[in-house]
Amino acid sequence: MKNILVLAALASAANANAQSVDTLQNQELQEVVVAGVRAQKNAPYAVSNIKKAELANFSKTGRELPFLFAHTPGVFAWGENGLGTGTAAMRIRGAAGSRINITLDGVSLNSPEDQTVFWANMNSYGALMGSVQIQRGIGTSTNGDGAFGGSISLATATPSYKPSAEVSGSYGSYNTYNSGVKFSTGLLWNHLIFDGAYHETGTDGYLHGTSGRSGSYYGGLTWIGDKFQIRYKNIGNFEKTGQAWNGVVAGNNDASLMGKDIKTYKDLYDRGLGRFNPLYEGLVFDYDKYAFPTNENGKYQTYRYKMDDGTYWAKTTDNFYQNHNILSAAWKPNASWSHNVALHYTYGHGYYSEFRPNNKFKKFGLVANDVNGKKIEYGDFVRKKGLTQHTAGIVYNANYTDEKWNVLSGINLQHFVGDHFGYLTYVANKGQVQDFKGLKYYDSDGRKRDYSAFVKATYHVNDAWDLFADAQYRHVNFSAEGKNDKFYEQPDGTYFNQILDINANYNFFNPKAGVSYHKDGHKAYASVAYAGREPERNNFTDNGKYPAPKAEHLVDVELGYQYAANNWRAGANLYYMGYKDQFVQTGEQSDIGENLTTNVDKSYRMGAELTAGWDATSWLTLEGNAALSINKIKDFDEYVDNWKGKPLKLHYDNSTLAFSPSAILNGFVNFHYKAFQAVWHTNYVSRQYLDNSENKDRSLPAFSQSNINLNYTFNTSKKVCGLKEVALGLSLNNVFNSHYAASGWVYSAVSKKYGYTNDNRYYQIGFMPMAGFNIMGNVTLKF
């Protein structure tokens, strides 16, 4: 802290001799950086904007950004550890993360192979951001992977022209903490700004074995000229977090947890399994009674996994490091023209280690024998699965504006190279002669080239009417080769690696058009957009019993109306999203918790998104939003596992899409008087089906929960060590202690031998539980 204050003092001295600089123009130059991927004012799209102050306040909670985005229409989020820190995910209009395009200052953040953003180590990005824009639906053309549910544009904050420093600290339930520091030197020598930040979050986690530590850091240099700026940003993330991708598992057979008295997560919670994590611990099983025994309080009994040396398996951890480098230049030579170019390179490396109890040797492609040559079928393993990633590219945008036209054009060229590998770091001694420790049991490479260009134009017909047109061409090549971490069984009972030999090319033309009317507080708009999207890596490697993946296509029609008066505002957006070959989640998961998908011929999402706000008094604001939708597959063939037989094929007409709630509601009561603010937030998410059969037994019940956030700010007038401001905050989460699960998975099967028919399937459900009532307090010092 002392060094930061010294640095700020030096900057203040430099500023004393600096000439005045046009700070407004520098803000405009920063907006040029993200103009290429954002919807402009009055554009005919469904848009939500989040401002800097809200992002900064949220960053102190340690929760991942999807939980803030879930305050906007049609978005909901969940986290593996139940608290919102660490591994988290989100959906927009029911579309999962791989269908949400995310950019940082116009540079794609989506992992090129998985086409998603892993929020596990970005918990304090909010402290670095100046604004966020969320577009629902296809939206305007952007860089990187296709937006089939929505797109999110993150923009880093404009560097402060004045010397500043900030220190924050938070602590709360389950030993959760968040600490951070950021600073700016202010303007040095009339041209240069150096700013930086570091934030870290740690927790014991709500679910057992999900303790972890993650964080982010930022360092930036900005050179400001008369009509241009050059900025280098280095942004890094790290994590070592306990995993719980299986959630809390239940089923309906005698040897599982479901029984007839456990149907929901609340039932599991009440039976003592609300925090049970099968990646960390096992359940005691009575083989004589073929059931899980309970203690005198009716709670299930658990045990820890034991190693050969007498120690216990610590936990399954995900370990990942990522570093983004962005060198950008923005130039505005005159009032009509602006240009932005960015070179970027991202390096990522990570792995997870997982204990696999009582697994078959042959499922790792191994044959184990004892000293007598007798085969050993089962053993305990620890597998370490890792990857390295290199992504590099260039983004260029040009913008022309005059009284009638606003024309944007852009080019995005991106190359990706990745390596996947796996080792057995521990194999229990079951009497086998062979030594398998250290074995590298799979290794594969992946490459992706993503080239795109767009032109989008707005024509101002008059003061009230605008016409929009947008066209993008995108070429994608994805290839992968080597041995994958999946094994196939042969007729003789042996297993061998899945061999990857993928080389797929895709060409997409993505046109969009729209019209908007805006006058005297009224805004109305209509748009239509078409887009294509390539399969992700898992669609090739984990399609299982379903056919080979195809590219998917979408037509998106949006109609909207908004009105803003002096003290109230309201809006409605209607949409229809018609899909061809949409990838839908089957409800099943891979063995590391990834939701498996398959193409369906025709499907659609349609709905209404409503917003309203009323400034009841100068100190009280009421706001709310609602997303009401119908999400259907017109024709769907489900392939159900049939033990000792061919998969059972079932056909459905007009079934509900999995993980697509028909209602998501948010309500806010905001009390704000002078330096005090109190916000009450309640949200509701309706039933989610875990597969596409629309069966309530394989679904998550609706839930509702409420949070309260309190903030008070003291102005100290620099009386103590240059301290300008002290801010106190308190977050009360899930104040009514609701027991609910926000996401999950299902596996189901039929078996004539064991009496499981289609109407009475064997199934297991994984619930992703969220914590009950929890609390977090924070203090922020600004200098």
Attribute tags:
mainly beta, five-stranded mixed beta sheet, 56% strand
In terms of topology, how is this protein built?
Elements: H1 2-16, H2 23-35, E1 46-51, H3 52-59, H4 66-69, E2 75-79, E3 88-92, E4 100-104, E5 107-108, E6 129-136, E7 150-156, E8 164-172, E9 176-184, E10 192-203, E11 212-224, E12 228-242, E13 248-251, H5 265-273, E14 281-283, E15 302-304, E16 317-331, E17 337-360, E18 378-401, E19 405-427, E20 439-460, E21 465-489, E22 495-519, E23 522-533, H6 537-541, E24 552-564, E25 568-589, E26 595-617, E27 620-642, E28 648-656, E29 663-673, E30 676-685, E31 688-689, E32 699-700, E33 703-715, E34 725-733, E35 741-750, E36 762-769, E37 774-782
Parallel strand pairs: 4-7, 27-35
Antiparallel strand pairs: 1-6, 2-3, 4-5, 6-7, 8-9, 8-37, 9-10, 10-11, 11-12, 12-16, 13-36, 14-15, 16-17, 17-18, 18-19, 19-20, 20-21, 21-22, 22-23, 23-24, 24-25, 25-26, 26-27, 27-28, 27-29, 29-30, 30-33, 31-32, 33-34, 34-37, 35-36
